[in-house]
What does this fold into?
Amino acid sequence: MTLRSGYALPLTLAAIIVIALVAAMAAEQVRSSTRTVTELVDQMRDRTEMVSAEQTLIYTLLTEPMVMEGVALGGQSDMTSLVLGQSGPRNASDLIRANGQAYRFGAEGVIARLYDDQSFLNAASADPANLTDILDLYGVPRMQHARMIAALRDYQDEDDLRTLGGAEAADYDQPGLPTNEPLRSALELCSVMYWTESAVCEDTGRLLLTLRTRSSDRVAPGLVSEALLSLMSPEADREDVRETFLLFADGQLTRFDQIDQGRFDQVRDPLSTLTAPGPFLTLVTQTPDATITRRTVIELTPNSLISPFVLHSKYAIGGDYSQNILRIESIDDVAPLPQTPSLATER
It folds into this structure.
């Protein structure tokens, strides 16, 4: 086979270009694979550290006394202060607040947070007025409130009689609904007729940071979280929400009417009182940028002979709302998670 005169050089150049392109593609593929492996290794390391942070929090909850603000390490519960609804850590060296305050944990700098049930709105409320207040916060139009509240009642009651505007089995496409049992978690709201497509369920991350199934409707001002304050003040930027959060945590703000949310100061149930945190507590662990976030709900059962705590739920959290609320701009500005003397090590 012979080549026509003048074609050898162009063909050679073309071959070189093709080889160069193939080599470049192969190199990029190798770099991409390396980045993927590195990211997976980083994620595995972060997740391992998050598990350690969660276990450390649980151990601390089981071994240290509770006060009104959270867990007092190295202190003693002051029963008089707890009964009077005052803070009272006696001889406490450190305090882990149960309002979602961020704490740094481990060499990799993952974030750990602790929330009491009184930091959340009550998804299982039986009070129509309280449910209306909650729906208002989420921006649900008032004209939809009555049927949503009726459907929630039908979802949980034991009979198959439809409340006016509510929904029973014939109205659901999915078999087994309604459950005719109390809600097991706040996320179950999104299985209830009319709630599924509502603003409440638009962002599950927001829902999981602001709602819990509780036995009481009252929110403790001293334990209110940034996530809930952001919901109460939708026009406020993150810095303003953070400042308000710190004012509540420090006791400079003590009532919700001081931020124009006095409806959450109302005590409709005289038996609903503010207490020290527990036994239901929510643990949130995350990477500083909140791209990986896990929410765990436990119940402390110190009198149990089988287990000192019960795990109720575990969810991964995502979405713009949760990332905006939980994201840490500077890890150096976050205080380390206080540890009990038996766990503390020299750094």
